[in-house]
């Protein structure tokens, strides 16, 4: 399936009241092509495979406490994969220290994440999730480093890190 997500017009409202910051590169791209086949599993099936905390983040859109993830300190070269289905989502060269207490990246692996508007707080944010299993990962903000200015703010429990000397695990089916 070559699903295309139309992102034109996406704007983000940051933690500063009243501040509306667009994400230039997403706006310029206009749309993002997904490159993976969806994996359809029930929430019950995922619940049996994941820890309670990971399940609540990935499939009930909870957010972990800032500073709680050991991935904040991870600086080795490697790949960050979805903790549910094992799809690679981020490469270590795009990780940076945002100071927020959550693992943060300047960009995902193209086509491996999908986004949608999130109105669960009083303002609009852009949620993103694994394009394969739909597992919630985090939110995108427009205050990241140049040139993209994106901050992909991820829950550590929604990811697993695979150091570059280890093979990536096969995708869960
Ligand atoms: Zn996944």
Provide an overview of this structure:
This protein has a single domain, classed as Peptide methionine sulfoxide reductase (Metal Binding Protein, Guanine Nucleotide Exchange Factor, Chain A, Beta Complex). The protein is α+β, with helices and mostly antiparallel strands. Zinc ion binds next to loops.
Task: Report a brief summary of the structure.
The protein is α+β, with helices and mostly antiparallel strands. 13% of the residues lie in helices and 30% in strands.
Report how far the terminal alpha carbons are from each other: 17 Å
Structural class designation = alpha+beta
Strands, count: 13
Report the CATH topology name.
Answer: Metal Binding Protein, Guanine Nucleotide Exchange Factor, Chain A
Basic shape: globular
| Low-confidence parts | 1-31
Mean pLDDT: 86
Q: What tags apply to this protein structure?
A:
Metal Binding Protein, Guanine Nucleotide Exchange Factor, Chain A; disordered N terminus; six-stranded antiparallel β-sheet; 173 residues; 13% helix; three-stranded antiparallel β-sheet; alpha+beta
Helix and strand layout, with pairings?
Elements lengths: L3 E3 L4 E3 L6 E3 L1 H6 L1 E3 L9 H7 L2 H9 L17 E5 L5 E4 L3 E2 L7 E2 L7 E6 L6 E6 L5 E6 L9 E4 L4 E5 L10
Antiparallel strand pairs: 1-4, 2-3, 5-6, 5-13, 7-8, 8-12, 9-10, 10-11, 11-12
Bound molecules: zinc ion.
């Amino acid at each position: 399936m070559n699903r295309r997500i139309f992102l034109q017009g996406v704007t983000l409202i940051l933690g500063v009241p009243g501040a509306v910051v667009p994400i230039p590169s997403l706006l310029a791209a206009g749309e993002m092509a997904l490159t993976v086949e969806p994996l359809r599993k029930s929430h019950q099936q995922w619940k049996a495979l994941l820890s309670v905390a990971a399940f609540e983040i990935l499939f009930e859109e909870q957010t972990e406490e800032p500073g709680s993830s050991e991935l904040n300190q991870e600086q080795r070269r490697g790949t960050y994969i979805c903790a549910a289905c094992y799809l690679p989502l981020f490469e270590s060269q795009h990780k940076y220290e945002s100071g927020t207490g959550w693992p943060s990246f300047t960009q995902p692996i193209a086509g491996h994440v999908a986004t949608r508007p999130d109105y669960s707080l009083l303002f609009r944010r852009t949620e993103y999730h694994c394009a394969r299993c739909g597992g919630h990962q985090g939110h995108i903000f427009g205050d990241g480093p140049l040139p993209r200015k994106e901050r992909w703010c991820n829950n550590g429990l929604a990811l697993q890190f695979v150091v570059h000397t280890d093979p990536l695990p096969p995708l869960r089916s």
